[in-house]
Design a protein that fits this description.
Blueprint: H1 25-32, H2 36-51, H3 53-76
Helix pairs in contact: 1-2, 2-3
């Protein structure tokens, strides 16, 4: 049995993932007329995507927390 070198090893993934470019926050705000809070959230999402799936999921949880916090403040007042 011969040991394969790293160059000879194959992975189970056969396809290459396409590279996606992300617009800068200023560009995103100009294109979609989004408020500043939304562009900051989009920048966080873009950064999380670059870091990986786990970071992307945690960013989603932060966004949900902020949305719930805003809704609670609207309904029962600020903390």
């Amino acid at each position: 049995m011969s040991e394969k070198t790293p160059a000879e090893r194959r992975t189970t993934v056969g396809k290459k993932i396409p590279v996606v470019t992300v617009a800068e926050p200023a560009e995103a705000a100009g294109l979609a007329d989004l408020p500043l809070e939304a562009t900051v959230a989009m920048a966080d999402v873009a950064g999380a995507i670059k870091d990986g799936l786990l970071a992307f999921a945690s960013t989603g949880l932060v966004v949900m927390f902020k949305m719930m916090e805003a809704e609670l403040a609207e309904r029962i007042g600020p903390r």
